[in-house]
């Protein structure tokens, strides 16, 4: 097993009975803890109109967290293009880099995913999956259809309130090229007019593309020679096609000689399996709220979650996510993370953990870090 760094992905979750302010304070506290524990990166996701998630603006939360930490890399997982222009994105990260240079990862995503019906062509080097298992035993569940989400009134309202005019028809690769050119100071309009971003131009940020499938995000990341983060925790059915497509399309760039991949996993660790499963009780109900398009609810207590009357339809709606959440003792979860790394050949792993009590969340990351170090892994990243 190679030396695999661990990072953190934080949605800034709001637990039932608490507030967005509590969630923000908890996230900054968790960043400080994971910095001391040796985690390599701390990324903030971007989500909107979700009652149980306070991470609406990665750049703002990054600025707050940068002031409270000193060594851990901080990043977005991801800034959703379509909500911001290339210029505003470079300006935001240029501002925070001006005061905390060399610590930031600019993770870029696609607002609302790809067009309806977009499906990646089979990769010529596709990782084999037999009876729902990748080599090494990683579970690859059936593909979940997001069509129901895309057609919901809430998602339609979110797009109306958030998407910039013409964003739906914007060329994603072109948006990435504009950001790279503005960072490098080489931007020219079609008419030949220069644009120089201050602060922003020359910012010492590491650019990443995030993707859940083998579609355009993976292809653009590979073709531009950028780092790529694949989401096993969001879409476990398509993680292998995502990393395969990225590697197929990879071309070396000034910043990267060879493909570089991070893969995310949803994790809950406790001293023993029984305690971990108790802490993870609310996860299924929380995922259900997302997939019914009502928006992520405040994360429930185990008792609140057990009070829900589950239908067969409910269970089917969340099964791929609950089956692929890594829950258990430090040894059990570390085994599963190593299995994920083996199947995807990831250079890093990104861990996202939600529990109702903040102390349990901190303890989960602590126990995992101890076990990960015991197995000879470090916090280094490249």
What does this structure look like?
The chain is α/β, with parallel strands linked by helices. The protein is 40% helix and 14% strand. It has 14 helices and ten strands. An eight-stranded parallel β-barrel has the order 1-2-3-5-6-7-8-10, surrounded by nine helices. β7, α8 (239-249) and β8 form a beta-alpha-beta unit.
Gist of the model:
Helix content is 40%, strand content 14%.
Can you lay out the helices and strands and say which pair or pack?
Blueprint: E1 6-10, H1 20-37, E2 41-44, H2 58-66, E3 73-76, E4 79-81, H3 86-99, E5 104-110, H4 147-150, H5 153-162, H6 172-184, E6 205-211, H7 216-223, E7 227-231, H8 239-249, E8 261-269, H9 273-279, H10 283-291, H11 302-306, H12 312-323, E9 326-328, H13 330-344, E10 348-352, H14 358-374
Parallel strand pairs: 1-2, 1-10, 2-3, 3-5, 4-5, 5-6, 6-7, 7-8, 8-9, 8-10
Helix pairs in contact: 1-14, 3-6, 7-8, 10-12, 13-14
- The helix content is 25-40%
Beta fraction: 5-15%
Query: Total number of helical segments?
Result: 14
Spatial order of strands in the largest sheet = 1-2-3-5-6-7-8-10
Number of strands: 10
* Order of helix and strand elements from N to C terminus: EHEHEEHEHHHEHEHEHHHHEHEH
Shape: globular
Radius of gyration: 20 Å
Keywords:
14 helices; 382 residues; 40% helix; globular; 10 strands; alpha/beta
């Amino acid at each position: 097993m190679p030396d695999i760094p661990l990072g953190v992905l934080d949605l800034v979750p709001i637990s039932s009975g608490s507030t967005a302010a509590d969630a923000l304070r908890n996230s900054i506290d968790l960043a400080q803890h994971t910095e001391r524990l040796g985690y390599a990166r701390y990324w903030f996701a971007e989500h909107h109109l979700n009652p149980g998630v306070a991470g609406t603006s990665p750049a703002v939360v990054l600025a707050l967290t940068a002031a409270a930490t000193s060594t851990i890399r901080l990043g977005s997982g991801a800034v959703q293009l379509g909500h911001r222009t290339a210029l505003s994105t470079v300006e935001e990260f240029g501002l925070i880099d001006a005061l905390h240079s060399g610590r930031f990862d600019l993770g870029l995503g696609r607002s609302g995913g790809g067009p309806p019906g977009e499906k990646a062509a089979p990769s010529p080097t596709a990782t084999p999956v037999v009876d729902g298992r990748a080599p090494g035993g990683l579970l690859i569940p059936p593909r979940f259809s997001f069509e129901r989400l895309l057609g919901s009134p809430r998602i339609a309202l979110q797009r109306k309130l958030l998407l910039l005019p013409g964003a739906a028809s914007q060329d994603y690769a072109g948006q990435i090229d504009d950001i790279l050119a503005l960072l490098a100071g080489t931007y020219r309009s079609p008419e030949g007019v220069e644009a120089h971003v201050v602060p922003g131009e020359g910012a010492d940020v590491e650019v990443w593309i995030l993707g859940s499938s083998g579609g355009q995000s993976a292809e653009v990341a590979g073709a531009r020679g950028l780092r790529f983060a694949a989401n096993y925790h969001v879409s476990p059915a398509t993680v292998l096609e995502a990393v395969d497509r990225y590697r197929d399309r990879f071309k070396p760039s000034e910043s990267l000689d060879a493909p570089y991949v991070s893969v995310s996993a949803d994790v809950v660790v406790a001293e023993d399996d029984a305690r971990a499963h108790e802490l993870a009780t609310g996860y299924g109900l929380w995922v259900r709220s997302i997939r019914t398009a009502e928006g992520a609810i405040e994360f429930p207590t185990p008792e609140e979650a057990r009070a829900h009357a589950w239908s067969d339809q409910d269970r089917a709606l969340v099964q791929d996510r609950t089956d692929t959440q890594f829950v258990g003792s430090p040894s059990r979860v570390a085994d599963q993370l190593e299995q994920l790394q083996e199947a995807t050949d990831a250079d890093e792993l990104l861990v996202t953990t939600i529990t109702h009590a903040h102390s349990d969340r901190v303890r989960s990351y602590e126990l995992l870090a101890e076990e990960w170090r015991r197995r000879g892994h470090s916090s280094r990243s490249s």
